[in-house]
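Input (structure):
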């Protein structure tokens, strides 16, 4: 799949278009065929490498996405292939209930 990626922190010039392997869902995960995304403030802070927002490099940004479930991982029972979803990241403290439980995205699905 085509994706925008940054391999180093910096200004918008560090973004490059690349071809990457399609992701596969692990247990409790789904993959989403993204129809639209946006540039969120979190994406800008991550790209700049701001303390507290640094991510492992290389990184494919895209915090807010809308699309359709492409593949469902083991144990996922509340979403099916083809479901329309909106995903927004929960970038948090790492200590609260949601963070310590590994919850990374809040997903809304609809008919």
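Output (sequence):
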């Amino acid at each position: 799949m085509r994706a925008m990626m940054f391999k180093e922190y910096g200004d918008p010039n560090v973004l490059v278009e690349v071809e990457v392997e399609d992701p596969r869902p692990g247990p409790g995960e789904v993959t989403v065929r993204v129809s639209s995304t946006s540039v969120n403030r979190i994406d800008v802070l991550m790209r700049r490498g701001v303390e507290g927002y640094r991510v492992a490099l290389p990184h494919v940004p895209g915090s807010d996405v809308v699309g359709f479930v492409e593949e469902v991982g083991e144990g996922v029972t509340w979403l099916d292939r083809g479901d329309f979803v909106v995903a927004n990241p929960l970038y948090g403290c790492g200590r609260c209930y949601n963070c310590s439980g590994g919850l990374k995205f809040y997903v809304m699905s609809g008919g």
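Notes: The chain has one domain: 2-110. The helical segments are 41-48, 97-100.
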